[in-house]
């Protein structure tokens, strides 16, 4: 499908908003959007390999929880399913709506990650999906530092998992 990047973008943005606004109640629909992605994707194998990056995101957010940077609204002690699914959908953008990132130097990727990754979490806090005891300035600075590393790392890792024989990039 020639313009699948746009479908992927719409699916991811829908997932982000569903998770930020409805958290646990969004899980069934977010799961269905996973199925829709794979039903429509022109690169299912590469997308499935991108999901290998998912544990990195889960470890990052669980670590930030354990460090007290964020907490979960429903009192979870481990990452809630909606956040894990959101991470999964994020990894699926790496071959499609965010594939352009791989063409840029890691410094640019880091700067984009610092700003937009941090803003994404601030948005989640403002919409009530996450809590924090820290000031929003401190949360922004922490997530900016984290995402300045995370985004270039996931882009790099996605390029590595996509290099395996038999995987076709579309």
Automatic annotation (TrEMBL):
Keywords, alphabetical: Membrane, Transmembrane, Transmembrane helix
Pfam families documented for this protein: DUF2878
TM regions (residue ranges): 15-40, 52-73, 79-98, 110-129, 135-155
Metal-binding is among the record's keywords: no
Stated name of the protein: DUF2878 domain-containing protein
């Amino acid at each position: 499908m020639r313009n699948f990047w746009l479908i992927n973008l719409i699916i991811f943005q829908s997932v982000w908003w569903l998770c930020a606004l409805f958290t646990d109640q969004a899980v069934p629909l977010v799961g269905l959007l996973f199925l829709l992605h794979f039903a429509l994707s022109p690169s299912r194998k590469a997308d499935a390999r991108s999901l290998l990056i998912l544990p990195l995101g889960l470890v990052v957010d669980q670590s930030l929880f354990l460090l007290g940077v964020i907490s979960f609204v429903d009192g979870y002690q481990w990452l809630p399913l909606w956040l894990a699914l959101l991470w999964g959908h994020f990894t699926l953008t790496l071959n499609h709506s965010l594939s352009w990132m791989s063409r840029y130097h890691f410094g640019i990727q880091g700067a984009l990650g610092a700003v937009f990754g941090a803003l994404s979490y601030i948005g989640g806090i403002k919409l009530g999906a996450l809590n924090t005891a820290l000031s929003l300035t401190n949360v922004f600075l922490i997530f900016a530092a984290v995402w300045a590393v995370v985004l270039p790392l996931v882009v790099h890792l996605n390029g590595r998992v996509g290099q395996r024989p038999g995987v076709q990039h579309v």
